[in-house]
Amino acid sequence: MARTLDQVEPRVAAAIARYLAKDASEADSAGVLGQAVAALIGVLLDGDDRWSQYWWVDDVLPDRVDRDGATGVALSGLVITADEHHQWIEPFQATLATSPSGTELTGYEVSVGDAATGLATVRYGGRRPMEWPDIPAWLFSFRRGTR
Question: Concatenated DSSP letters for the chain?
């Protein structure tokens, strides 16, 4: 079932609000946030012509999650992507913000993939390049609203 931004953004906003309301070390709220961000990245990539219709985002593995102001979060880590036969990893970073009530996603900046290594070159379980997460040029960058 294809998802749209209108379906995913409220889920991301709710996950951010849940994460910010709880102790940041609580695994459950970080896991919910990661799942929501994976869904957002999947929808964003699906809308880009460079992304194959046969690929999908399986999950994200955040290496870092930090508060970004009173209503936002900043994450970076790995996106696990897949096709019918393989899984691979891509670096990502995201900064997301909600309305003060936490019910609306008001803005985001999301970047995925290292232009230097290319897309789908590092298998899941493989060794990530030493340059990650310091990516000088991203393959995909998405921005909406204010954060």
Answer: ----HHHHHHHHHHHHHHHHHS-TT-HHHHHHHHHHHHHHHHHHHHTSTTS-TT-EEEEEEEEEEEE-SSSEEEEEEEEEEE-SS-EEEEEEEEEEEE-TTSSSEEEEEEEEEETTT-TT-SBTTSPPPTTTT--SSEEEEEEEE--
